[in-house]
Amino acid sequence: MLHIIRELKRRGILAINKRNGDYTLKHNPRRLYPLVDDKLRTKQLALENGISVPELYGVIEVEAQVRQLPEILANRADFVIKPAHGSGGEGILVIASRSNGKFRKPDGTIISSDELHHHIFNTVSGLYSLGGQPDKAIIEYRVRFDPVFESISYLGVPDIRIIVFLGVPVMSMVRLPTRMSDGKANLHQGAIGAGIDMATGATISAVVGNDITTEHPDTGKSVVGVSIPGWDHLLELATRCYEMTGLGYQGVDIVLDKDKGPLILELNARPGLNIQIANKAGLLTRLDLVERHRPSLSTLSDRIAFAKENF
Amino acid sequence: MTEGNELNRAHLYILAGILIAIGLLIFAYKARVVGFPIGHETESHAWKVEARLRFIATGHPVKASLLIPTQSKRYPILDETFVSGNYGIVTTADQANRKAVWSVRDDIGKRTLYYQATIGMQQNAPDEAPRPQKKQAAKAPDFSGTTLEAAEALMKEVKKRSADAGSLVLQLIKFLNRTPPDQNVKLLLGLKPSSKKKVRVAVYLLNHAGVPARMVTGIRLNGGPHDFTRKTEAMNWLEFHDGKRWVSFDVVGGKSPVPPNWFRWCVGSGSPATVEGAEHLRLVFSVRPLVEEALTAAVGRMEVSHPFFLKFSLFSLPVSTQAVYRVLLLVPVGAFLLVLMRNLVGMKTFGTFMPVLIALAFRETGLFKGILIFVMLVALGLAVRFWLERLKLLLVPRLAAVLIVVVGLMTALSIFSKALGGHTGLSVALFPMVILTMTIERMSILVEERGFGEALISGVGSIICAALAYLVMNIKQLEHLVFVFPELLLVLLGMTLILGRYTGYRLMDLYRFRALAKG
Predict the structure, then answer these.
(1) Which of A124, B8, B141, B476 could crosslink B204 through cysteines, CB 3.0-4.6 Å?
(2) With an 8 Å Cβ cutoff, is A46 touching chain B?
(3) Is the pTM of this model over 0.80?
């Protein structure tokens, strides 16, 4: 056991106590949390700052507003319903198409409009929100993901997570949905996490669960060595989120839309730690490095260059 | 790390250090100077002993006498009472024994007289026996004819193998206990000798051989604090004088001295109780340990020595309130355990302090029954919850519905368990139902979103934490400590503050990141 501790220390693995105690508690002032915990506010903030996000179709804040759903949806065939205060991808309902008043999910299951309403009711009454307080249901644009990931993801939308510390992107991974994760991009549900080389934007290693892998279990295609298009633009987008929210330690989730380019999906003030497993690298060494050099990195491009050079 | 961080850390450690120091100082002062007992039943055991004298008076003057204990340093008599009815009572003392004599001019019918005493016990104090004249041998042993011959032959044999009084007694007892018995021993003891007979014969033989010896009648101060067996048999053992002091000797066991909890009631070969003018005399001894005596005695002393301390302690509260605090003060202990389990081990539980509350409920039901009830309630509640899911209820009404079902289930469980002969009936109600409802709700959501496995991990984690919290909170010594020394909460607070800045790995992190530790 001691040698595990020593080895984890040596590799600079950041664990939950230290993340909470030395990073999120210290660098993320409590008053800034609502900016990222409420996805609606994040969206507005991003629009004000000229950062692209999935288009907002409408918001349902109280149960009775469900009646407005047909107006909100107009004749849009596909859309996403998500809780404004959700976490960990919970409560996100993706509708891929509609017919005869029924809704079809990407995996082919059909749900009735009653079931859709029930999902919205649950969301509004706070089922998916932290602490169970009443919530809002956001209805927004369903991302049509870039074909770069087509062969290495199952159903859902792959997203790219970039950890930004004091305005410096430090680590990144792409999360690829699998059959096991039910098309969700959540690592603990069985999605693949692939670490990304910060300099080139190419995937370098991948894990599913806690096991290292090289190919997608459902498609059989290699998940290593995939280059993410427009990587520099992605880095810039993520880095700008630091100025936007003021959070010192945050996770930026980005999706690649084939028409609209990279879109900020959400920001996270307590980003998970599994990104280290996907990258086979510890965060702590990188965070220490950033903390030491931060005073000399004034401009945005300085910080990105620093990240590309060091990580 | 930055300077501010170091400063914060120093600040925290100083604060925690001060809290712990204050807590320990008050604790030490109260324990050492004021005299609150640290152990929940320390060496100052006490027993309530009782001798009950029953007889049927025959209509004549009645005079009943009972030999009663003489106090020694090891066994101080803290309190004694005589229950006499209309009898007059006189106590007298000779060199060996104290004696209570009840008498009445005339009486008829069943009578019961009591002698009750609270006996303290100082484990380490020497057990000095009452000191009659050394030569109690004045009373001639009633040996004659063949028994005299047998006695003399036996003692000759014994003397051959011994050097002093001690070894003489040891050899004699060996002879008496030998199976099959020696011819002489058989003659002296008879076929199936009682231990009393053995002691009596040994005393006679020793006195005959010129070693001062006497029979002791006593009782065993028995049992743990929860052993309330009351009746106890009188026992007999032997004491001989080795030239300097009286030494006790267990004739049946062949050991010397007798165990420290053998309490000498009286000495002498006669019966401890006699009665004139009545018949059917019966003497019954009973003994009961006084559990709280250590604490009560300390509090009693403090009323005189440190009234100020007592006024500002929990002992100034009404007893029923004290009982609440006995439990309440254990909650921080449970919470601290949860800090350990979650931040050091990395256990997953439903709700932060839910396991502590469940553990409190376990205190009423017992661990295994408690876990059984908990699992049953959650399982049944989950089943109902999944059924409600199909009705598509809104959140708050759905929670209320589950709560109603949980309360209903608890009621049903109580009634059934009562009907089936258990008496867990009432205590089930102490299960925190709101906590149970929230547990069911969270678990069902977790089942739906993350699968049954994930939910089971948290569920089992909660039960393990609750069971651990129960086991810790059920340590009587701990309960005593936090109740008598609530300042120890400051120590707990200090340690919690320090753990609040523990940023090292949790045990579960080692498992989670094990792929990265392989190098």
Answers:
(1) B141
(2) no
(3) no
